[in-house]
Amino acid sequence: MAPKSKTKQKKKDKKQKKRKVKSMADKADKYELYQLSVQSPEEDIEFLANVYRDLRGQKALHFREDFCGTALLTAHWIKRGPDYTAEGFDIDTEPVDWGIKHNLRPLGDAADRAVLHIQDARLPSDKPPDVRCAQNFSYWVFKTRAEMSDYFRRAHVDLDDDGIFVIDLHGGPECFEPMEEETEMDEGFTYVWDQDEYWPIPSEAKSYIHFRFTDGSELHRAFSYEWRVWGLAELRDILEDVGFARVDCYWEGTDEDGESGNGIFTPEDKGEHCLSYVAYLVAQK
Ligand SMILES: C[S@@+](CC[C@H](N)C(=O)[O-])C[C@H]1O[C@@H](n2cnc3c(N)ncnc32)[C@H](O)[C@@H]1O
Question: Which end of the chain has the lower number of beta carbons within 10 A, N or C?
């Protein structure tokens, strides 16, 4: 058989490339999947606004979202009305640009009430926030007590006089176990939380998020985390040490079946033993 000319072969390769059917993973948008899997902005904003109102007897208006990523909470905050303003802080332009396009721009002029800073979360706000939060354990990037104290101290100084600082955390013996937890999402993909490794001496962990699809494709390690796994009591101690007047743990109630959480978080002193939990620490200036 005569050898094909180089140009003919190139054209054939191009055609074959064009014909290659894209997998679901190829077509997926990792930030969209992240928001669907991990975030509950309506519930979170409702919780933050209600806690402030209950503690301070007035409405919180200026909000700050540390480690804001796609600024989903910021977008939901300013949607509450024309008096509501927000600032977000993140060091990575990629999620922030995605968030501007998909979460803020669709709000039209209201988006002008949000300022996103491509800056370290330890830097000061333009205006002292009434409510400042760090969600989804992002502040666990600070691995030493000195770093965490410094971050909390700066948050304390930066708040409005009546301000509150709210952080979430997860705990329970399962958070130290190397394991993969799969959640089948209504939107037709599987969210996988992969606790890959845990080192007990520094209490550090390496975890990933993968997304799996019904055609067998996968967005492997769509997100990676290297964290210190902090304990609730030690975080509370640090918040008190840096000057917060009062720190309360908001613990989740249980469903009627008595087994799963009901999404309602209220202040509690002791909590109860469970394999895995998510809780909030609410620190008042
Ligand atoms: C897990 S994402 C958080 C996304 C979203 N805010 C949430 O609650 O799910 C963590 C974000 O923290 C950002 N980040 C990491 N270190 C940071 C720092 N020192 N200051 C500000 N942002 C930081 C990363 O760029 C990333 O977007």
Answer: N
The full DSSP string for 159-177 is S-TT-EEEEEEEESGGGGS
Atom 1 in ligand 1: residue holding the nearest Cα? 138
Which residue, chain included where needed, has tokens 């990523």?
A: 69
Q: Looking at residue 258, what is its pLDDT?
A: 74
Q: 107 CB less than 6 Å from ligand 1?
A: no
| CATH superfamily of the 30-171+231-284 domain | Vaccinia Virus protein VP39 (3.40.50.150)
Q: Is 136 in the pocket of ligand 1 (CB under 6 A)?
A: yes
Q: Where are the beta strands (DSSP E) in the chain?
A: 62-66, 85-90, 114-118, 131-134, 164-171, 179-184, 189-199, 204-213, 218-228, 246-254, 261-268, 277-284
- All structural domains of the chain with their residue ranges: 30-171+231-284, 174-225
Q: 233-270, pLDDT tens digit by residue?
A: 999 999 999 999 999 999 999 988 777 889 999 999 99
